[in-house]
Amino acid sequence: MAGYNLAWERDGAVGVDRQDKFGGTGAVRAGHGFDSAALDRWMQANVPGYSGPLAVEQFNGGQSNPTYRLVTPSHAYVMRRKPPGQLLPGAHAVEREYRVLAALGQADFPVAPVYGLCEDAAVIGTPFYVMDMVEGRIFWDSTLPSLTASERPAYFDAMNSAIARLHGIDYQAIDLGDYGMPGNYFARQIARWSRQFHEDEAAGRLADMDWLADWLPGRIPAGDETSIVHGDFRADNMIWHPVEPRILAVLDWELSTLGHPLADFTYHLMMYHLPPHIIGGFKGADLGALNIPSQADYVAAYCDRTGRDGIANLSFYLAFNMFRFAAIIHGIKGRLARGTASSPEAQSLVETLPELAAIARATAQSDI
Predict the structure, then answer these.
(1) Distance between alpha carbon 171 and the CA centroid of its chain, in Å?
(2) What is the pLDDT of residues 337-364, one digit of tens each?
(3) Residue from 80, 190, 69, 192 nearest 126 by CA
(4) Other Cβ atoms closer than 10 A to 21
């Protein structure tokens, strides 16, 4: 979950609630502490211009990778680390986050500048990286209620433009040619998340998830494409300019890889299909009154930017993404059961799992 911002935007009733849960900082939580003196020594050796003393706070967010605000008299930084405890293979890959941030920064895509990666777990107990703390605005409610109706279209267009731009970056040219395995993205992702769902016995089973794991592999659309994909592209994973419809930094790249751009875009499109309490969707909102573009118009804008005639098989793409996100929540449920969940709000997220899985199955069986 996003949570790297100092100047939090209180964005309506739902947004205030989500900010209270996921935004802001507090004392380092039990089980998430580390040797701050060792971190101070590492930063002195690896971060240009760094000067202590160092104070450490923990962001309330960070369902997956614990995230900390590092404060010195002259600067503020953000640290992302792997959580302590037993981890599933390939999960919590902060090394990959660091690599993609460094590469995209060189391509002038809006990300937080990074300062260094430490893969030596002996320093603070787990690998970590340090980046700049970008000041700006985060919208916790995806309907952007603090904006006027006349302002909202420009902000939605900025998100649309950013994801289209990401998918157009030449990943080979920025040395990300081996950042993932090109081709067969859906088959590999379905197999990966099905396996993690089935193997995490502590989290239990869910009939709708079992149904989706059986249904999805045989419904993969023909054709293949490869681009950089973010994996969790949504409004509250962005820091915005304080007063302009301009994204300063896209956050939370843990799930990024080389993949199919339509998988990434339709994950973003889930905002039209999920209720507010599930990753900030706005299903049921009066889009006309809010002056939020219709799904058809939003899809058309992306297609225009990426040279497409349209997107067929939307029901598959949406069901795939809901299944994938449900599997991620299922993993959080497992960590909660094992006592290694990285946020006190993990339980509230886990409680949405049955509803999300049911919506995913209903979406798969629909004709969108």
Answers:
(1) 20
(2) 888 765 667 888 899 999 999 999 999 9
(3) 80
(4) 18
Handedness of CA 19, 151, 108, 271 (dihedral sign): positive
pLDDT for 367: 78
Mean pLDDT of 6-32: 54
3-state DSSP call for residue 307?
coil
Q: Work out whether the CA dihedral 317, 319, 325, 327 comes out positive or negative.
A: negative
Task: Answer yes or no: are the C-beta atoms of 56 and 70 closer than 8 Å.
Answer: yes
Query: What's the mean pLDDT when you consider all of the chain?
Result: 90
CA–CA distance, 7 with 4 (Å, rounded to integer) = 10
Beta pairing partners, 229: 257
CA 83 to chain centre: 16
- The CA-atom distances, in angstroms, between 231 and each of 215, 255, 258, 324 are 22, 5, 10, 10
| pLDDT, tens only, 31-41 | 889 999 999 99
pLDDT surpassing 70 at residue 89: no
Q: E strands of the chain, at which residues?
A: 25-26, 55-59, 67-71, 76-81, 114-118, 128-132, 227-229, 238-240, 247-250, 257-259
Whether 10 and 19 have beta carbons less than 8 Å apart is answered as yes
Per-residue pLDDT tens over the stretch 312-334: 999 999 999 999 999 999 999 99
Describe the chain by its helix, strand, coil percentages, rounded to 5.
Answer: 40, 10, 45
Q: In the block, which residue shows the tokens 């875009």?
A: 265
Average pLDDT over residues 152-165: 98
Identity of the residue numbered 73? P
Q: Which of 321, 331, 312 lies closest to 356 in space, CA to CA?
A: 321
Reading the block at residue 181, the tokens are 């395995």
pLDDT at 86 over 80: no
